[in-house]
Amino acid sequence: MSDPIYVALQHDDVVSYLGPAWPPTPGDPLLVIPPDASLTDGAAIVYPQEGRPGITWWVVDSTIPRQGAGTPDEALAALLPGSVLGTVLSPTPTPDTPPEG
Length: 101
Prior knowledge:
Elements: E1 5-8, H1 11-18, E2 29-32, E3 42-46, E4 55-59, E5 63-64, H2 74-79, E6 84-87
Antiparallel strand pairs: 1-3, 2-5, 2-6, 3-4
């Protein structure tokens, strides 16, 4: 397999490419790309089969959410060494009243 290729792009451009897939839904899988990729927003191109065309995954805020290319999984994590597969967390609810103290 070939090493992944990282391409930096503007945050707003990547979000527009993701369309309705952004923001991700709580509970969805989310892959955090490795810090040594030095990529916050852009694309990660992986090559699952040697000699075959690569697959481009959009990266936003150093994460790969579910998108047209598919759902991030362990197979994608294996193609991006150092990445971590997790789950989109629910936003923290805002309390109706401030805490006393």
